[in-house]
Write a structure and sequence with these properties.
Length: 312
């Protein structure tokens, strides 16, 4: 029973990284059943975050939060997970709090998780937390604090290069998002080019999807809303699901619908979502946006200073 649960959870994790969520659903249900019947807390703590992710994509944020809270309880009570596994649960919990609008709770959890990581001699985890906190401050509009944290994360990466493409992809995406908030198209292009290359190298499709959403923000800066819609659809194809509770996706979708109309936006989004995986991967490359001039962004900055926030 326990070995069957282990096989299901490993298969689910592999499929999730490939952006194939349909088989994940069956495997998650099976693995939770196997580990519950075996009375194995480690297995439950490993599997519950996967069900939380599925619930998040389905729009059930309260259910996702309950799963992560239970996984954290099991890990705390039985010491059943490694520091890295616990930290990744915390990162997902923080993301859910942001989606629920509980930024104070998210900030408190970041501080607690960073302290635990540093006590455990895990500075690479602190780098990820710097990037995650920078993203949070971007969403609430404190660009100076966000810049400090991005620079801290970049400095850590230059010394240690943790997590291969994962760390580089995450930090580069946050740097790109900061540039977008400042209306700096060339800076965003450069940062997102690095983030995209690192994400592709990681072979983790949800990481590429995350970068693709920020690339859609770059397209919005340039007034290219058909590209925005296609890129958001391609991101959904890469992660294997829509992500309608993501604040950036919601904001870009709203702006795209205003610019294109509901029907035209939906058609372009579906075009991106129906792409074959290799084509969706190529479509997310920010270099594709460099071939067009950005008059809309230039005009907007001339009259308004910087574009509206992607995170609010």
């Amino acid at each position: 029973m326990w070995l069957a649960g282990l096989a299901h959870v490993f298969r689910a994790q592999s499929a999730e990284a490939e952006g194939r969520l349909d088989p994940v659903r069956g495997d998650v249900t099976a693995t939770l059943d196997c580990f519950a019947r075996a009375g194995d807390c480690w297995g439950l703590a490993r599997a519950l975050p996967l069900r939380a992710l599925l619930r998040q994509y389905d729009g059930d944020l309260d259910g996702a939060l309950a799963d992560l809270t239970e996984a954290k309880r099991l890990a705390r009570e039985f010491g059943s997970l490694s520091l890295s596994d616990e930290t990744f649960i915390d990162l997902r919990w923080i993301d859910l709090q942001v989606r629920l609008g509980a930024t104070v709770r998210a900030t408190e959890m970041i501080a607690a998780t960073r302290e635990r990581a540093l006590r455990s001699a895990s500075p690479e985890m602190a780098i990820l937390l710097d990037a995650r906190e920078a993203d949070l401050w971007l969403r609430v509009g404190d660009l100076d604090r966000a810049r400090e944290l991005v620079e801290s994360a970049e400095a850590g990466l230059s010394e240690r290069f943790p997590f291969g493409g994962h760390g580089q992809g995450l930090v580069g995406a946050v740097r790109g998002a900061l540039c977008l908030e400042l209306g700096d198209g060339p800076g965003a292009e450069e940062a997102l080019g690095r983030a995209y290359a690192a994400a592709v190298d990681s072979k983790d499709m949800p990481i590429v999807a995350m970068v693709a959403v920020i690339v859609a923000g770059l397209a919005a800066l340039y007034g290219r809303y058909l590209d925005v819609a296609v890129l958001l659809g391609a991101a959904a194809r890469l992660r294997g699901a829509h992500d309608r509770t993501d604040p950036q996706v919601r904001t870009l979708t709203s702006r795209g619908r205003v610019a294109l109309g509901d029907a035209r936006f939906a058609e372009a989004y579906e075009t991106g979502r129906q792409l074959a995986a290799p084509t969706a991967l190529t479509r997310a490359d920010p270099a594709r946006l460099r071939r067009a001039a950005p008059p809309a962004a230039t005009a907007f900055r001339r009259h308004h200073g910087r574009p509206p926030s992607l995170g609010r």
